[in-house]
Specification:
The protein contains four helices and three strands, in the order βααββαα. The longest helix has 18 residues. It has a three-stranded mixed sheet, with helices on both faces. By secondary structure, it is α+β, with helices and mostly antiparallel strands. It has one domain.
Length: 87
């Protein structure tokens, strides 16, 4: 049996992120407008990072100010974190 052991979980949208981490967050869109993903550890662990990013599509660009560079910035931050923890 194959067991999946993720290092990173990326949640698209606030509701998905809140469901995975187990609590509500405030300022989700405001933080994303600065190109910063939400970041927390998966409940009960200290080795699985969970990120909350804007859901893809036209509406996300509207919600974060219409700049694709902002979305890319959040993804680049996740990639940097991952490069430090990957085996």
């Amino acid at each position: 049996m194959l067991i999946i052991n993720p290092k990173v979980i990326i949640c698209l949208g606030k509701i998905t992120y809140e469901m995975v981490i187990g609590h509500t967050v405030t300022g989700f869109t405001d933080k994303l407008k600065n190109g910063e993903p939400f970041k927390a550890f998966y409940p009960g662990t200290n080795d699985i990072l969970v990120y909350g990013v804007a859901h893809l599509g036209f509406r996300v660009l509207y919600n974060i100010g219409g700049k694709e560079e902002i979305m890319k910035s959040a993804c680049e931050r996740i990639a940097q974190d991952y490069s430090m923890i990957k085996e």
